[in-house]
Amino acid sequence: MADKPLILILGDQLTPTLTSLAADKDAPVLMAELADEASYVRHHQQKIALIFSAMRHFAEHLRAQGRTVFYLPYGAEKQINGFAEAIAHMVKREGFDRLIVTEPGEWRLMQDMQNWPDKLGIEVEILPDSRFIADHTEFERWADGKKQLRMEFFYREMRRKTGLLMDGDEPLGGQWNYDSENRKKLPKGHMPPPRLHFPPDEITQNVLHVVKTHFGNNVGTLDKFAWPVTAAQAQEQLAHWLDFCLPQFGDYQDAMKSGEAFLYHGLVGASINLGLLDPLSVCRQVEARYHDGQAPLNAVEGFIRQVLGWREFIRGLYWLKMPDYADSNYFEHDRKLPDFYYSGETDMACMREAIGATRDHAYAHHIQRLMVTGNFALLAGLAPSAVNQWYLEVYADAFEWVQLPNTHGMALFADGGVVGSKPYAASGAYINRMSDHCADCTYKVKQPYGDEACPFNYLYWDFMIRHRDKLGGNPRMGMVYRNLDKMPDDKRDGVQASAKKFLEQLK
Ligand code: DLZ
């Protein structure tokens, strides 16, 4: 019987060396813009535009290499809903009898894929995704028997494995981690360098039109779309960042400044997650800048830790813990997500900035995500499922394997300590230390409670009081609870009354 294979490429598998493409150099390729994928959450308009445009460019790239590509665009005469429907359509039309696909990033899709042989009546070959530095077995082996899984130790394994920033068996510079040197506030008047923008070409303009027509009511705007949509553009953006931003990335990694969404950040997350950039190659290019004397160790290590350590750890953990992971709710938080997470209309200047950047660019940097919007969600007791959905919707780089452990685990501590050893809770003082937002805020950051006080201040203490039974015994929270015990009664009462009033009106 003749073998007639078809390769399916997903929207975040835009890599020429993908295992499915390498498995058969001649087989035709199927790519499809699908209603189900574009609407399983209400993605930010720019996220859909980026994925569709990058997919269309990748299809052109494959065609230029001589591949046959069947591309099903969104809004065609017959809109296809899901992957299985798209494959069935091609099987019927072209007589394919075998599907080759690289494993998906998301658990829900892997479940679906495992049903395809029965559903479609063809052979389905699911290959590993070799674009990660650690494969599933390696992570499972590392995690096996450990009471606690901590990124820092996995990161060290990855450093040893790749030789990145190593001096023989020792970490370069004598330390594994320079996080304590990554926390400077931007000096007054300091302007970060301008960033590269990629104006929409004809393909992207067509996509923007499709997105506006079909998803124009989703969160965000398309006006400022400037994402790299090809591997060449993504590399150009990386090179620009290496030249102009990397040297100061370390110092200002945690800083926030009004009106400046990007600061010194790499903006490579979306490109890496779509497959336009290879994570190991990015890390090696960053490391080379240190060896060439062009960037300090705290900057280079800070970046490599995010990609080699954090990103790989999070991915391993997602596959180890799903599907139950998403259902945990350690603090039993159930408050509805306030509308301002979508509109940005709030008097809290830090939240307005973070959500404004998110709406404009489908981007906010890690401290805005963790210590502003995430911190607020934690302190206000917002339901993890609603918060998870929001993060998955609004960020161009968000796929569940990376978004869920970051939001659910790190920002919300909803997993009770699988990802982190303590909640990342902070009062307004932290935001004031790391940003210029509080100076222009309606609320007063120095005031602990009352109508004019910064809500982060009283929500912080109210959170600690509410969850003493769960957090009081955590050694890393000892200092917090010792301070709480020293708090005068009138302050404690004031904090609780202000929190109650604020949370009531959030409804
Ligand atoms: C996120 C996304 C969107 C919005 N649209 C598509 C699409 O139309 N076609 C496609 O192949 N992939 C899309 N994706 C990415 C998939 O959701 C992604 O591949 C899975 O979530 C696995 O990570």
Overall geometric form: globular
Strand percentage, roughly?
Answer: 5-15%
Unreliable sequence segments: none
Mean of the pLDDT scores? Answer: 96
Described by strand count, sense and barrel closure, the largest sheet is: 5 strands, parallel
Present as ligands are: ligand DLZ
* SS elements, strand count: 7
Report the span from N to C terminus.
64 Å
- Using only C-alpha atoms, the radius of gyration works out to 24 Å
| Derived structural class | mainly alpha
Q: How much helix is in the residues?
A: 40-55%
The number of helical segments is 24
> Within the largest sheet, what's the order of strands?
3-2-1-4-5
Question: How would you describe this protein?
Answer:
The protein is mainly alpha-helical and 507 residues long. It has 24 helices and 7 strands. The protein has helices spanning 19-23, 35-39, 45-64, 83-94, 107-114, 116-120, 136-143, 151-162, 202-215, 231-244, 246-249, 269-274, 279-291, 297-321, 340-343, 349-361, 366-380, 384-394, 400-411, 428-434, 455-466, 468-471, 478-486, 489-506, and strands spanning 5-8, 29-32, 69-72, 98-102, 123-127, 166-167, 170-171. A 5-stranded parallel beta sheet has the order 3-2-1-4-5. It has a two-stranded antiparallel ribbon with strand order 6-7. Strand 6 (166-167) and strand 7 (170-171) form a beta hairpin. Helix 14 packs across helix 19, helix 18 packs across helix 19 (400-411) and helix 21 (455-466) packs across helix 24. The chain is globular and about 80 Å long. It starts with a strand and ends with a helix. Bound molecules: ligand DLZ. Ligand DLZ binds at residues 10-12, 32-34, 37-38, 43, 48, 51, 104-106, 109, 399.
